[in-house]
Amino acid sequence: MSSAAPRTTGQDHLWSVDEHLEDILATVRPLEPIELQLLDAQGCVLVEDVTVPVSLPPFDNSSMDGYAVRVADVAGASEEFPAVLEVVGDVAAGQADLLHVGPGQAARIMTGAPLPPGAETVVPVEWTDGGLGEGPVSGMRARALAPEGASGQVRVHRPAEARAHVRAKGSDVKAGDRALEAGTVLGPPQIALLAAIGRGTVRVRPRPRVVVLSTGSELVQPGEELGSGQIYDSNSFALTAAARDAGALAYRVGAVADDAETLRSTIEDQLIRADLLVTTGGVSVGAYDVVKEALSHVGDEDEPGSGVEFRKLAMQPGKPQGFGSIGPDHTPLLALPGNPVSSYVSFELFVRPAIRTLMGLTDVHRPTRRATLRADRALSSPKGRRQFLRGAYADGAVSPVGGTGSHLVAALAQADALIVVPEDVETVEPGAEVEVVLLG
Nearest-CA neighbor of 331 among 314, 307, 347, 310? Predict the structure, then answer.
């Protein structure tokens, strides 16, 4: 990451959502590419095109268990007048030495096995008597139980066209084709393709390592007993899960008490494993807002160009925010509010795009839609603030979920979208068209 640019705005400057996000994305840079083993590269972004070195499949092969034959030998075959062919042996998947199929002959062939020389088509075993001299069979007997099935005669009850049930060489991809483009996120199908063309490693941008840390002496870990005035720490779990959902390798740090020195020490300890630090809580104007106290002057002397600036944004929820870089590597840090909804909305608007930028993706934002507002009454929004309301989106319409309180976790769990009310709008009537950010 490059050094944070000097900021000239004063403490009283009210930042817009777009200004804050632009500042973040102008500072955060994609991680340097590395070569990884295939499974380690899952979820990472390719940095170069991948060309196919060998065609898939690399040879003509059978898509069925059956018999490899010549077309002329089974022309006109029926149950009443079957074609009787001499079985010259088996062709199994992975077999190198292939039989030759001549006139009046057939080779018993397995799914995935190479089409032997001389054969022109494959007859499924269900179209034959399986070499048993009776009517149609439903399958082959295991070679270990009936080795004689690879010899003798087989009766074919139906004709087959040329190259029926044959998967042609290169029918999936051909040598020289581009298998995957730079910028592709590697999921299971892409990993499978890379393995199929023989790639053991691939050059990617690694998944960002994100450390999530919550603050507050009132926070208790889930599973422990609550004391008087205490609440469970949900923010660090929500943000860690959200970071993983965005594509990061996320690490959750237990809640830190309201002590600036302890917090500063904890953050410094986490720098060794972080490409991005995210804190939640302690960024407002209270006497115990320790994130602000601990980080306001970090880097002023020891690390020129680094430091964290705390801002007020023209948004609701999420007005107090912090952003900057700390440590010798200028690791980016985003300080989010402590209220659960404010924290989560801030993550979606600012942290998720930062993570996606570190990954090297070009499209870093959640998708947006225009939707019809379904509500019992008009929605109100504070003048000069961009409001983000929780909503449920379906079939081009969105309905508010829960109230406007920034502590309503239960309502947040029911939402799959954010309803965006612009800064210059104070009232939105039912039936109006609104912008929604899709979270699912």
Answer: 307
**Number of neighbouring beta carbons within 10 Å of residue 420:** 18
Q: What stretch of H or E contains 193? A: helix 188-196
Burial (CB count <10 Å: 0-12, 13-18, 19+), residue 156: buried
Residues 338 and 234: their CA atoms lie apart, in Å, by 10
Render the burial of 178-211: b for 16+ CB within 10 Å, e for the rest: ebbeeebebeeebbebbebbebeebebbbbbbbb
Listed in sequence order, the residues at least 6 apart from 248 whose beta carbon sits closer than 8 Å to its beta carbon are 207, 208, 209, 210, 276, 355, 358, 359
Q: How far apart are CA 139 and CA 137, in angstroms?
A: 6
| Separation between Cα atoms, residue 224 and residue 289, nearest integer Å | 25
On the 0-12 / 13-18 / 19+ scale of CB atoms within 10 A, 363 is: exposed
Give the helix/strand (H/E) hosting 18: helix 17-27
Query: 57 preceded by cis ω (within 30°)?
Result: yes
Query: What torsion, rounded to 10 degrees, do the Cα atoms 235, 265, 1, 317 define?
Result: 30
Q: Of 204, 174, 208, nearest to 187 (Cα)?
A: 204
105-109, 145-149, 150-154, 382-386: least confidently modelled range: 145-149
Give the start-end residues of each E strand in 191-243: 201-205, 209-215, 219-220, 231-232
**pLDDT digits over 300-338, tens only?**
445 555 688 999 999 999 999 999 999 999 999 999 998
Q: Which residue has the tokens 């449920």?
A: 392
Collapsing DSSP states into helix, strand and coil, what is residue 343? Answer: helix
Maximum Cα–Cα distance for the chain, whole Å?
96
Of the candidates 292, 282, 275, the residue with the CA atom closest to the CA atom of residue 236: 282
- For 361, the token pair is 């993706």
Q: Let me know: does 110 contact 92? Beta carbons within 8 Å.
A: yes
252: which residues sit within 8 A by CB, 6+ positions away?
Answer: 212, 236, 237, 240
pTM: 0.83
Q: CA 332, CA 278: separation in Å to the nearest integer?
A: 9
